[in-house]
Design a protein that fits this description.
heterodimer, A: about 475 residues, alpha/beta, Aconitase, domain 3, Aconitase, Domain 2, 3 domains, five-stranded parallel sheet, 17 helices, 19 strands, about 15% strand, globular, B: about 210 residues, 10 helices
Chain lengths: ~475, ~210
């Protein structure tokens, strides 16, 4: 019987079994950031411990950084302190810990600044066949490369800093197979929203999701990252794709990819870690790509999603008592009427960015369609590139001008309005069409703010219409019928 | 670092109805703007508590009937969402020493375990009975028996489950694993030695 990538990577990184039966798992790469990690460095100090492998630890600043920073600074110039004193304090705490322990810092304001789940892959730090952890639940993103990557709490950040290992339970592996071609205007974001909507927000508890099938095979690395990013929203701490030629091509030549003389050996290792054809799984769920439409959340969990041409459900449409109760709660919070179409729901804010959809391909795809359109009056529209490198590349292609001309704010990189830890927040009960990952109550910085998750192209369509609308109509994306055909 | 064995948690209940209560709701992100965990107790469920007040009702954490409760009674998928350990710590700072619910977010449950707080999974019907029991009679004593995997609520007893390794970690006083992790220095080195990728990095000059 063959083995899955999860089992191969897990076994290779197993240090041993702890007395309680948990695995002591070696972590090949550890990302730390300013929100959940400064406390862990303080814990090390309390215990008189150091950082065991600073060379396998990389620090980023992303959650609290302001996004109105100048995008150019003098070569070698020191970063100017943020005017937000709390953000400055958190950033300075991380910077000082990085310096003290010899940890590589991808500094705020530098050319390598950005959201950890965007920058790590961009630099080639994230590679197949690794274990990878970070004090952030969207660490599942890195599974797109065929690594086993997961979010951890601060105490576990301390464990990894001190020992490069943590105590973990082996996960079950559930295979999510998506076959067929996605229609025009349908993206990886729609696929994952559709999967979560179908399986539920807790179906992945105790599981890793292996994404497979002909649809997944043809996705780019950036699209695979979108897919794996939101595995956690389905309850799966780990989501991954098997590494293939697409993966290797993405990595080749990146600053931290294996050196030239190590490349062939690296590719051999990566290939050997992919799931065997006859691997066994703890469950398989199958989806037909052709049946997936542009998908939008209407409620307060990422599972409360519907196709853009569907109606908002009535409470009695919930399958379980719990589902019905969450539908009722969501309708009340979102101030939406059951039975009404989601299309036409007014939005006041449009946000494109985040570790889910703040990459170059996301911005390129929107820019392809945006020329000649204008953001509706009364809508605030923001684009926050996922990293400085995304911003630079987009600017080189003139994408920033396309967004600006359409009435979008073009901002400097950070997590921004995904979670409102900086000044980018909803106000009152504003409704935001958002390319981010969570529509939880209060998620975007206002305790009554409302979030509708969707793909970046759908966000752009909503910004233009001032309401949720089918991007395929706004941007004329439907395949034309051939008038010569009978 | 020997820790106490957590074999049993006994106390009154705090009934928190609702499903899919995510960690943003437990501690909204704007209260994570700090480099310590010191102030978290105050901000636990801050928005939900304010919302309850605005309706003229009381959130269970503000309701004097449940003051001093040590066992938080919750629904399905409690603690889903972000990895912020702040969530488990904020609840702990409110005096909670065990949770009972239908299911928990994986990362949240791990964070709670690392603080020595058991998350007991019960059948939905049983969770409802316990919750209603406490709502009707707030003085009901709840006992979460980690050793026997049983919850006693007043006169009734219910089974619960948790991963065997987590149960053992709690019973053995190994819920904070740092001592065990540090004890295997040689094995960690041996694991690192067989991972070729740790040595594939380009020379520094070539990268930055």
């Amino acid at each position: 019987m063959g083995r899955s990538l999860f089992d191969k990577v897990w076994d290779r990184h197993t240090v041993g079994e702890l007395p309680d039966g948990r695995t002591q798992l070696f972590i090949g790469l550890h990302y730390v950031h300013e929100v959940t990690s400064p406390q862990a460095f303080a814990m090390l100090d309390d215990l008189g411990l150091g950082v065991r492998m600073p060379e396998r630890t990389v620090a980023t600043v992303d959650h609290v950084v302001p996004t109105d920073l100048p995008m150019r600074r003098r070569e070698g110039a020191r970063r100017l302190p943020f005017s937000d004193a709390v953000a400055e304090g958190m950033t300075a705490a991380l910077e000082s810990a990085a310096k003290r322990f010899g940890i590589r810092l991808l500094a705020a304001g530098s050319e390598t600044a950005g959201v950890v789940h965007v920058v790590g892959p961009e630099l080639g730090l994230t590679q197949p066949g690794m274990t990878l952890a970070c004090g952030d639940s969207h660490t599942s993103t890195h599974g797109a490369f065929g690594s086993i990557a997961f979010g951890i709490g601060t105490t576990q950040v301390r464990d990894v800093l001190a020992t490069q290992t943590l105590a973990a339970r082996r996960l079950a592996v559930r295979r999510i197979v998506v076959d067929g071609s996605l229609g025009p205007g349908v993206y990886a974001k729609d696929v994952i929203l559709h999967v979560i909507r179908s399986l539920g927000t807790s179906a992945g508890a105790g599981c890793a999701y292996e994404f497979a099938g002909s649809t997944v095979d043809t996705l780019s690395m950036e699209e695979r990252m979108t897919l794996c990013n939101m595995a956690i929203e389905g309850g799966a701490r780990v989501g991954y794709c098997n590494p293939d030629e697409t993966t290797f091509a993405f990595l080749r030549g990146r600053p931290h990819a294996p050196a030239r003389e190590a490349w062939d050996g690296a590719v051999d290792y990566w290939r050997s870690m992919a799931s065997d054809g006859d691997a066994s799984y703890d469950g398989v769920a199958r989806f037909d790509a052709a049946r997936i439409a542009p998908t939008v959340t209407w409620g307060i969990t990422p599972g409360q999603a519907i196709a853009v041409d569907e109606r908002i459900p009535y409470p009695d449409e919930g399958q379980t008592v719990a589902d019905r109760s969450v539908i009722r709660e969501a309708l009340e919070y979102m101030k939406l009427d059951p039975g009404a179409p989601i299309a036409g729901t007014p939005v006041q804010v449009a946000f494109i960015g985040s570790c889910t959809n703040g990459r170059l391909s996301d911005l390129r795809e929107v820019a392809r369609y945006l020329s000649g359109h204008r953001v509706a009056r009364g809508v605030r529209a923001l684009v926050v590139p996922g990293s400085m490198s995304v911003a630079r590349a987009a600017e080189a292609e003139g994408i920033d001008a396309v967004f600006r001309d359409a009435g979008f704010e073009w901002r400097s990189p950070g997590c921004s309005m995904c979670l409102g830890m900086n000044d980018d927040r909803l106000v009152g009960d504003q409704t935001c069409a958002s390319a981010s990952n969570r529509n939880f109550k209060g998620r975007q910085g206002s305790s009554t703010g409302r979030t509708l998750l969707m793909s970046p192209v759908m966000v752009a369509a909503a910004a233009i219409a001032g309401a949720v609308t089918d991007a395929r109509d706004v941007f004329d994306m439907r395949p034309r019928s051939n008038p010569d055909a009978s | 670092m020997p820790l106490e064995s957590i074999a049993r948690v006994t106390g009154r209940g705090v009934p928190l109805r609702g499903e899919d209560v995510d960690t943003d709701r437990i501690v909204p992100a704007r209260f994570l703007r700090a480099v310590t965990f010191d102030d978290l107790g105050r901000h636990a469920f801050e928005d939900a508590r304010a919302e309850a007040r605005s309706r003229g009702t009381l959130h269970p954490f503000d309701d004097p009937r449940y003051a001093g409760g040590a066992v938080l009674l919750v629904g399905r998928n409690f603690g889903c969402g972000s990895s912020r350990e702040h969530a488990a710590r904020a609840i702990a700072k409110r005096g909670v020493r065990a949770l009972v619910g239908e299911s928990f977010g994986d990362i949240f449950a791990g964070n709670a375990t690392a603080l020595g707080i058991p998350c007991a999974c019960v059948a939905r019907e049983d969770g409802d009975v316990i919750l209603r029991n406490v709502e009707v009679e707030p003085a009901t004593m709840i006992e979460v028996d980690v050793d026997r995997l049983r919850i006693r609520a007043g006169e009734r007893e219910f089974a619960f489950h948790m991963p065997v390794a987590v149960q053992r970690a709690l019973l053995d006083g190994a819920w904070d694993p740092i001592a065990d992790l540090l004890a295997r220095e040689a094995a960690i080195g041996a694991t690192a030695a067989r991972l070729d990728y740790l040595r594939w990095a380009r020379p520094k000059a070539e990268t930055e």
